[in-house]
Amino acid sequence: MDPSAPILLFDSGVGGLTVLAELRKVLPEAPVIYAADTAGLPYGSKTEAEIAARVAGLLGRLSERYRPRLVTIACNTASTIALGMVRDVLHIPIVGTVPAIKPAAAMTKTGVIGLLGTEATIRQGYVDRLEAEFASDKRLLRYAAPGLVAAAEAKLRGEPVDNGAIAAAVDGLRSQPDGASIDTVVLACTHFPLIEDELRAALGREITFVHGAEGIARRISHLTQGLPFARSEPDLAITTGELTEFERLAPTFSAFGIERIERL
Ligand code: DGL
User: Which tens digits make up the pLDDT trace of 96-106?
Assistant: First the structure.
């Protein structure tokens, strides 16, 4: 194994940075390429076919170009739709992002769990199966909150967060039957932990938020155990979209240890 072979993190935008933050804690020496399909953002409003084609196509191109040792799809929408397909075509370990319904079911005291995701994620059979397997004795109240993706992107560009989007998401959960009893909320989109403070302020201090970033970082660490890591060049962020727009995120990437930004 080439010690400089990177770990590739993939998302539609900045959401995967929540996974990168946890990865840095467990594998600070690992070379990372962060790829954001900003030309395709948001994924949540796209069809399954569009998402699967984009994700499989882009990960194929990125893998050929950058030869990662492992790919992490740091996006619930892409993972719940395209994980199987990507695993079929790429012959390296692929780590996906799964809505954290299992840990949420173990944590809830009231038995009522909220789940915030994109429109595409919340309708997936993948989520139905997780609910049936791990939360069949609980109430799982799902709500699609696409406005939160834009809010998180704006926050990381240093712009104000849209309080209307936060209020709409909170109302979308609380106004459902039994919504007042929600004590645990699954953040089933990697963008949402970036605005956890705003969500907590609106939903209430007592709410427990659950997401998969820490578990994903542990999984990456497990799969690369014993392999050497050594950076031969600085970590890189790649966009499929406008470079000038993406460069507005430079201070954010710098805070995550990424100083180079390029267009695919
Ligand atoms: N970060 C992505 C996720 O985890 C979705 C954002 C989007 O709609 O593109 O689902």
Answer: 999 999 999 99
Residues 6+ apart with CB under 8 A from 153: 13, 14, 41, 191
- Does the beta carbon of 149 sit less than 6 angstroms from any atom of ligand 1? yes
Do 209 and 7 touch, CB atoms closer than 8 A? no
Measured from the Cα of 41, ligand 1's closest atom is 9
Domain 7-97+214-263 identical in fold to domain 101-211: yes
- Residue 106, φ and ψ in degrees, nearest 5: -75, -20
Q: Where are the domains of the chain?
A: 7-97+214-263, 101-211
pTM: 0.97
Q: Where are the beta strands (DSSP E) in 56-103?
A: 70-73, 94-95
Alpha carbon distance 259, 39 (integer Å): 21
How confident is the model at residue 60, as a pLDDT? 97
- pLDDT tens column, 126-158: 999 999 999 999 999 999 999 999 999 999 999
